[in-house]
Specification:
By secondary structure, the chain is an alpha/beta fold. The protein has one domain: 3-Layer(aba) Sandwich (Rossmann fold). It is 40% helix and 21% strand. Strands 1-2-4-3-5-6-7-8 form an 8-stranded mixed β-sheet, with helices on both faces. Helix 2 links the parallel strand 3 and strand 4. Helix 4 packs across helix 5. The longest helix has 42 residues. The N and C termini lie far apart (77 Å).
Length: 275
């Protein structure tokens, strides 16, 4: 073999060794970068606890199932909590409707909100009227929901006397949104914020406190007078948000991942005063 050829092979070998060393170095740096990132992501996804209860209101002779979604507590955690009470949409007495919004209730718990989700309908209840003056014939059903909300709240306080409720917010879908609006109208000093998912019947009170917001579907229109006119919304801080590509019946766990993300993002921003 000629001297020139030997020299050429030595140079090529050196270049190959340098290239391999560089690739190894890049791989090592890549592993060091992704490791902490994954760990940070895991820490961000807080562990939560889900507990189911069934309590009895002896005055009304009515049982009330509800679920508590909360972040797992550790020694030294603050006793001051942010509480949300969620009310489901009408389900013709389907007994597990209060568990059918887990994408929302679990997300709230991961973000630090203790969330009570109440079952408002029981098997054997009268179905809500579909005819007549709706705001009149459905008022007894909304009042029953209001009583459920107050009863569950009192039960929660009695069974968790060490906790201090820093803020109380109401969220409700459709008929559950109507009863949430009614509760806030009747007990304005109790509630910080109300967020409805496409409530259609119960008018928003014209007030700045509590603060009212509503996420609207693409296929339903609220009755006249339910949502304030734009000028009133501007002056009172009421937020009416039109969602994209989400129908009324896609606001529970039946919605797509993208739809759920859109709803959760808006709710989180409203609760944290970022919108």
């Amino acid at each position: 073999m000629s001297r020139e050829r030997k020299r050429f092979l030595v140079v090529v070998s050196g270049i190959l060794l340098l290239a391999l060393a560089g690739m190894a170095s890049l791989a090592s740096r890549s592993e060091k970068t992704t490791g902490p990132s994954k760990k940070k992501e895991a820490v961000k996804r807080k562990e939560i606890t889900v507990e189911k209860f069934e309590i009895y209101d002896s005055i009304r002779g009515r049982r009330i199932p509800y679920a508590l979604f909360r972040p797992k507590r550790a020694p030294g955690d603050s006793d001051s909590i942010r509480l949300v009470i969620f009310s489901h949409g009408y389900g013709a007495n389907y007994p597990r409707n209060y568990l059918n919004y887990s994408y929302l209730t679990k997300r709230l718990a991961r973000e630090g909100f203790w969330t009570l989700s109440i079952q408002h309908e029981l098997e054997g209840d009268s179905l809500i009227p579909q005819t007549g003056i709706i705001q009149v014939v459905r008022m007894p059903f909304w009042k029953r929901g209001e009583e459920n909300i107050l009863f569950v709240l009192n039960h929660f306080r009695e069974t968790n006397p060490e906790l201090v409720i820093q803020s109380l917010d109401l969220i409700g879908h459709s008929n559950g949104g109507d009863m949430s609006v009614l509760t806030a109208r009747d007990y304005p000093g109790l509630i910080r914020k109300v967020i409805t998912l496409d409530n259609l019947r119960m008018p928003f009170p014209l007030c700045a406190n509590p603060q009212f917001s509503s996420l609207r579907s693409t296929d339903k229109t609220a009755d006249a007078g339910v949502l304030p006119v734009a000028a009133s919304c501007d002056s009172l801080g009421i937020r009416i948000i039109q969602l994209k590509s989400i129908t009324h019946n896609q606001m529970n766990d039946e919605g797509t991942r993208k739809q759920k993300k859109q709803i959760n993002t808006y709710i989180q921003k409203i609760l944290e005063d970022r919108i």
